[in-house]
Amino acid sequence: MNKQLKKLAILGSTGSIGTSTLSICESFPDRYQVVSLAAGSNIDAAFAQCQRWRPKVISIATEQLAAELSSRLFAAGITGIEVVSGTAGTIHVATLPDVNFVVSAIVGVAGLEATYAAVCAGKTIGLANKECLVAAGELIIAAAQKHNVALLPIDSEHNAVHQCMRGGTPAEVHQVWLTASGGPFRNTPIADFASITPAQALKHPTWVMGQRITIDSATMMNKGFEVIEACRLFHLPPDQVRVTIHPQSTVHSLVEFVDGSILAQISVTDMRLPILYALAYPERVPVASKVPLTFDLASLAHLDFAQPDLNRFPCLRLAYEAAAIGGDACIALNAADEIAVAAFLSHQIPFLGIPRTIEAVLSLTKVNHPQSIQDVLTADAAARECAQSVIAQQLTARV
Ligand code: NAD
Ligand code: MG
């Protein structure tokens, strides 16, 4: 039987989610066709993807890199690929008439405009980029409703919730439980937090991911973003989205219904599973021998769940506070975190400087609700500038 071919734009194709998506395309060529790609600055990876996938269009971060990629393609005798650049290029990739499914997997707000444009162009979205929903969730959800577009979560917890939600109606949901591994510092004495190094924080116990999300997992800001993401995707207030520490990362999340039933989703810790679920929805694709995603139930010794300690993980508390305010508070939460994580990775600020910076930026942010993507970007730029000056003050204070 010839399945309906889904024609994909992959935003962030050279990243962790992007390459996992391409490996799914590799396994199911009869179902998924790569039409266009958007990458950042990794020109070698972008060139290799052009060679392998022959997209109609590829976008790369800058004009200069686009010129370099074009000449490399020409020298290799590869023709017929349109090379574009920057935000306009990413939007072009995401809105091509040929494309009917967009995988949004650029990290940070860099992916926001293209994701929003794709929603407005009526494309089905496989959404990995959580920062989009944190910063501009109200606008994206409203646009998705207006254009009757499905936003299918790829983030494993939301993907699990999406699956569990099929067990009842939205009105029957009492609350959602997002599981968190607790990251590498779940049991580290709080006194040792001050000396945590980037190398230690980049070692995630159960998932292999990009750098920013790995640090966000160590501070639990990632879970904070996911609380906001869940509020938006599933139309829930923050107090109906709970977090539970589950070190095995086996239960990817749970939905508790009004009658007391709790449905959980269990699977291997492999992002190809939620990616394939989103790509295939509303079908379920038999993976069989093509992708090794079978879960060995017999190996399951026990499942632990515990309450998160907000003193250990102040980022989670800050995220709940921002979620309750909404608008610019969520934009500032994301922007300040991105700047603070970069400063931590470049050894400018200590691990505890991350929540300290975010808390300072939030306290300086006025309550406002953006009316357009431009408003979001303006508030985002202001929060970044604020974070930079908060960090500069911390550095001066240390000298
Ligand atoms: P990554 O750092 O591995 O990849 C990011 C991708 O974005 C790369 O292709 C990079 O080239 C591209 N990019 C960066 N800046 C860009 C720009 N200005 N223009 C165009 N492209 C740009 O990140 P990742 O781990 O794949 O995560 C991607 C998104 O998915 C993030 O929002 C993350 O929070 C989310 N997510 C990831 C995972 C995971 O397991 N990796 C799980 C859940 C959610
Ligand atoms: Mg997640």
Instruction: List unreliable stretches of 5+ residues.
Output: none
Name given to the CATH homologous superfamily of the domain at 6-153: NAD(P)-binding Rossmann-like Domain
What series of H and E elements makes up the topology?
EHEHEHEHEHEHEHEHHHEEEHHHHH
- Strand order, main sheet: write it out: 4-3-2-1-5-6-7
Could you name the CATH class of the domain at 6-153?
Answer: Alpha Beta
* Distinct small-molecule ligands in the complex: nicotinamide-adenine-dinucleotide, magnesium ion
Beta-strand percentage range: 5-15%
Structural class: alpha/beta
Largest sheet: 7 strands, parallel
Return Rg in Å: 21 Å
What fold name stands as the CATH topology of the domain at 6-153?
Rossmann fold
Let me know the average pLDDT. 95
The overall strand count is 11
Helix content bin: 40-55%
- The end-to-end span amounts to 69 Å
CATH architectural group of the domain at 6-153 = 3-Layer(aba) Sandwich
Quaternary: single chain
* Number of helical regions: 15
Q: What global shape is seen?
A: globular
